[in-house]
Automatic annotation (TrEMBL), chain A:
One of its GO terms (biological process) is Golgi vesicle transport. CDD domains: TRAPPC3_bet3. This is Trafficking protein particle complex subunit. Homodimer. It comes from Dictyostelium firmibasis. The lineage of its organism: Eukaryota, Amoebozoa, Evosea, Eumycetozoa, Dictyostelia.
Automatic annotation (TrEMBL), chain B:
It comes from Dictyostelium firmibasis. Part of the multisubunit TRAPP (transport protein particle) complex. It is found in: Endoplasmic reticulum; Golgi apparatus, cis-Golgi network. The keyword Signal does not apply. This is Trafficking protein particle complex subunit. Its main location: endoplasmic reticulum. It holds the Pfam family TRAPP.
UniProtKB/TrEMBL annotation, chain C:
Part of the multisubunit transport protein particle (TRAPP) complex. Its main location: endoplasmic reticulum. Belongs to the TRAPP small subunits family. TRAPPC4 subfamily. This is Trafficking protein particle complex subunit. One of its GO terms (biological process) is endoplasmic reticulum to Golgi vesicle-mediated transport. CDD domains: TRAPPC4_synbindin.
Length: 186, 186, 135
């Protein structure tokens, strides 16, 4: 399954229009510094970044569906692979890996490599383990999945900017919103 | 998998060749504009707010590009810095040079850089009540930040200019230098 | 091949975009809204008519002597439908093209409020170009 989605992710990424990632990296940096100025409290910054990501996710999902041609996933395991291999590749050109499943298959960790958001970034000591610099990604995943009727909770559990060896997001499936599945959808 | 050195200054500077989906930037930029809109009192403040966010990027980008361009020296001539912006800066941000660089015929201290297809505006349609807004105010802010940190203080703004035979206007970045810059260059 | 009209309904079945092309007779704004919500209801009823539960996708095509209606519903519940010449063969591709334009020129526009009426010049412009190429 993973191989199939690796290929699809590459194919879609090759097809989309691309730009140099630095404009994106610098823009995100400007946004985070502005939020720190506006909110002062770092926990509020984490929350705001997640919310902004959510707003992006509920829109981005349409492009994801339209341009990848992916249909409904059969289970959450497949959803996880699609996010990692197609989603991250298609939008950021990077790889993510799925691991650390719990026994119920409702919770996994997403390990992200070469995250373009953190190029050039070094966190000051006082922000380490406090600011989740790339927290916007958690919101994007939550927003996108909610639109395809899955309510999830995403949190950063490790971040290389806080001296961890990897960057990992924990994704927990809380509920499948069956009532929200469009009428006439098989 | 090789581990990058923990300290950011021990890592080689990225070559700036990584690419991402243009949509990722567009979604981020759109969310940033909405954030700015929520925090202003009147419509015309939006440009100022966007420009301020761009401004913080200017000095960082200038430094990055100067280090990367192997034989670059500090620009001390007015035309030198303008052509650096028109070509090097534009290429690194948008993947192509700007369409033109002109001196204003009306004022001695004004220069104009035009872009017929401004990347940041690619997906943006302006509402009727904001038809004179140009979201490239963000780019104008970046340019102003570069000029000020290169000791060419100036006021930089973005404008919509109609083009004959075209349905949508082009973007003109207007650079108005401070008097001391013009005197020094005379 | 004539394309008469394109409609977009949001998840709740509210009309968020409608446009007529060519010589199609114009109706009042309220009529379009009514047509949109009527179609939404018919689509829901049609999907319940299937003898095997959960196996019908609702209305995909309505063919008549005078026109053909083709509908495409996204996984998120948005409906795009087009009314065209009965002999038109590429309406599915056309609707997918409209969906892609929607993801680009509507959803990436910071001034568009999600679920609301679509008023985006670039979307209108690109849509006309899309139809122009195929007509």
């Amino acid at each position: 399954m993973s191989k199939k989605y690796d290929k699809l992710g590459n194919d879609v990424f090759n097809k989309v229009e691309k730009i140099n990632s630095e404009l994106f990296t610098l823009t995100y940096g400007a946004l985070v510094t502005q939020l720190i100025k506006d909110y002062e409290d770092i926990e509020q910054v984490n929350i705001k970044l997640e919310q902004m990501g959510y707003n992006i996710g509920i829109r981005l999902i349409e492009e994801f569906l339209a341009k990848s041609g992916i249909g409904r996933c059969s289970d959450f395991i497949e959803t996880a692979e699609v996010i990692a291999k197609v989603g991250f590749k298609m939008f950021l050109g990077i790889n993510a890996h799925v691991g650390d499943w719990d026994a119920d298959r409702k919770e996994f960790h997403l390990t992200i490599e070469d995250n373009p958001l953190i190029d050039f970034v070094e966190l000051p000591e006082q922000y380490k383990h406090k600011l989740y610099y790339s927290n916007i990604l958690c919101g994007v995943i939550r927003g996108a999945l909610e639109m395809v009727q899955m309510k999830v909770k995403c949190t950063f559990v490790k971040c290389t900017l806080s001296d961890d060896t990897t960057s990992e997001i924990k994704v927990v499936l809380e509920e499948v919103l069956s009532d929200m599945i469009p009428v006439g959808y098989d | 998998m090789s581990k990058a050195p923990a300290n950011i200054v021990d890592r080689p500077l990225s070559k700036g060749k990584n690419e991402i989906n243009i949509s990722s930037f567009a979604f981020l930029f759109s969310e940033m504009i909405q954030y700015c809109q929520d925090r202003i009192k009147a419509g015309h403040e939006l440009e100022k707010k966007l420009s301020d966010m761009g401004y913080s990027i200017g000095p960082r980008l200038l430094e990055l590009l100067c280090v990367r361009e192997k034989n670059s020296k500090r620009e001390t001539k007015l035309l030198g810095i303008l052509s650096f912006i028109h070509t090097t800066v534009w290429k690194s941000l948008f993947g192509k040079p700007a369409d033109s660089l002109e001196k204003s015929t009306e004022a001695d201290d004004e220069y104009m850089i035009s872009d017929n297809n401004m990347v940041v505006n690619k997906f943006i349609s302006l509402p009727k009540h904001l038809s004179s807004l140009n979201c490239a105010a963000f780019v104008a802010g970046i340019i102003e930040g570069i000029l000020c940190s290169a000791e060419f203080p100036a006021r930089v703004t973005a404008h919509n200019v109609a083009v004959e035979g075209k349905r949508f206007p082009k973007t003109v970045i207007l650079i108005k230098f401070n008097p001391e810059v013009i005197e020094r260059n005379a | 091949m004539t394309i008469n009209s394109i409609y977009i309904l949001n998840k709740a079945g509210t009309l968020i975009y409608q446009n007529d092309f060519g010589n199609t007779e114009k109706l009042s704004h309220n009529s379009y809204i009514r047509l949109g919500s009527t179609f939404h209801s018919l689509h829901a009823i049609a999907s319940n008519l299937s003898p095997v539960s959960g196996s019908s996708s609702g209305i995909e095509v309505i063919e008549t002597e005078a026109f053909k209606l083709q509908c495409f519903q996204t996984h998120t519940g948005i409906k795009f439908y087009v009314i065209a010449d009965p002999n038109h063969q590429q309406l599915e591709e056309l609707l997918h093209g409209v969906y892609e334009l929607y993801t680009d020129y509507v959803l990436k526009n910071p001034f568009y409020e999600i679920e609301m009426q679509i008023r985006c010049d670039l979307f209108d412009y690109k849509l006309l170009r899309l139809l122009g190429v195929r007509e």
